[in-house]
Specification:
The protein has 184 residues and is mainly α. The protein has a single domain, classed as dinb family like domain (Four Helix Bundle (Hemerythrin (Met), subunit A), Up-down Bundle). 52% of the residues lie in helices and 2% in strands. The chain is built from six helices and two strands; from the N terminus they run H-H-H-H-H-E-E-H. The protein has a two-stranded antiparallel sheet with strand order 1-2. It holds the Pfam family MST. This is DinB family protein. It comes from Streptomyces piniterrae.
Length: 184
């Protein structure tokens, strides 16, 4: 007996894709320019994370991967909200914004199987993404150096893309463990 879910996909063209290319909302024309490209990649990864969470209930979203890991899809959502907030601390020298969820790994430990926790996590993520996007919009020069550490705006954009890309890879595996759905 095996309690692992059977692998499946909605795609009919390529069996290892999440959806068929014609149905993929992330597909579109390539943008012009470096900033537009960074924004497009980040938007695509943000959408991918949401797609990996769609159709799951609170228990499935909070289900942890493999012991001793605390990683879950809901934990990833909470973690990325926390990270978006933290990046705003890199933009200016004001007092740092407080953590959303508390001490180290609280974003994962607090990912509990309750609908209120799910709703709050997605609201937190949307709010923090919007706030970080607005903060960076005030700095369109990718070479501009910010705050006392002098981090380049470009580096903040690239780091955000990298963070979402890495965690979307985790989300692929987590989703497959939950219900067997595979994706690119």
């Amino acid at each position: 007996m095996n309690d692992q879910p059977a692998r499946w996909t909605e795609a009919t063209v390529y069996p290892d894709m999440w959806v068929d290319p014609d149905n993929d909302p992330r597909e579109g024309a390539s943008p012009e320019g470096e900033l537009a490209t960074l924004q497009d990649f980040l938007a695509g990864y943000r959408m991918t994370l949401r797609m990996k969470c769609e159709g799951l209930d609170a228990e499935q979203l909070a289900r942890r991967s493999v012991p001793p890991s605390t990683m879950s899809l809901l934990g990833l959502v909470r973690h990325l909200a926390e990270v978006e907030r933290d990046w705003r601390n890199w933009i200016d020298d004001a007092d740092p914004l407080p953590k959303l969820y508390g001490e180290r790994d609280a974003d994962f430990h607090g990912a509990i199987a309750e609908q209120a926790a799910v709703d709050a996590a997605f609201a937190d993520l949307e709010r923090e993404q919007t706030a970080m996007d607005a903060a960076l919009a005030e700095h369109p020069d990718l070479s501009e150096r910010l705050a006392k550490d002098g981090i380049a705006v470009r580096e903040l954009w690239v780091h955000r893309v990298e963070e979402y890309a890495r965690h979307c890879g985790h989300a692929d595996l987590l989703r497959e463990c939950v219900d067997g759905r595979v994706g690119q």
